[in-house]
User: Fold these one by one.
Assistant:
Number 1:
Amino acid sequence: MAKALKQMMVAEYERELEGLDGVILIDTGPMTVEASQELRHDLREKAGGARLKILHNRTGRLALGRTLFGEESAVLEEALSGPSAIVFGGDGPIPIAKVLREWKRKFKPLRVKGAVAEGEVLAADEVEGLADLPDLPQMRGMLLSTVLGPARGIAMSLQAVYGGIARALQANIDQQDDGADGNDEGGDGGSCE
């Protein structure tokens, strides 16, 4: 019976982890229920719906070894010693790492144990670097400004050229109107009828 239950748990983990671009393994430490709920809420809100799940090490080792880390991963072996939890989903590992960094500052026992990001296995100390990277919306904004920068410069240059032409034409029209008004007033004054 225990073997069948273990296989079902492994299959469930594999199903949840299928197609993900990354996960982060953590040790939450002695966290109260309220703190755990607050962490889960922050992950959902700030990391686009990320989830935290307490992990049974043996079943987690099987599921993660088959899906993300690879069967013989030393990082996975080290990460799955002692109490473990997995954070996954949402907007991916970068926003998750940012939330976890915030939490490590206010809840000292929280410890990052390892991760997989974009197929790359990361040790615990390398995960901190993920939190320094721009997340997807920031990267999109940076890319958009890079792409639109030259177009904006061209548009501003054209606007300046056409604006200059329009001002020159308007000045010419104003000058002709002033000259025409002056001719009309003095032109009929000298005629005799």
Note: The longest strand covers residues 111-117.
Number 2:
Amino acid sequence: MIKMLPESEGAVIGIAVSGKIDAAEENKWIAVFDDLIEKHGSISVLVVLEGQFNIDLDAAYTDLKWTIKHIKNMTKIAIVSNSKILGWLVAADSPFGKLAGIREKHFDTSDLAKAWCWVKAPVE
């Protein structure tokens, strides 16, 4: 399941991801993101990964295609989780994201408020 977080505003959207994500769920959210990009040109995204989640292959492929197509429309991505491994992966990917014009950062779930401040702040 994917749900929008209430702190979302303007060109900044926050989502919480948990449970099973199928193609229908993915397509629903792609439409939301497309609408935001149409309205604002570029967006920043905060993703909270809550517990276990499972994304089916069709949804993962759809997500990857959408991300590649819209990479120029992404400004910041904040990943919020308790996973140290995910934190390392985001840190390793961050220099490549910068090359594409995206700032990305991992936050522990205890730092959710800091993640919101970071993702909402203007790009330096």
Note: The beta strands are 2-4, 12-21, 43-55, 74-80, 103-107.
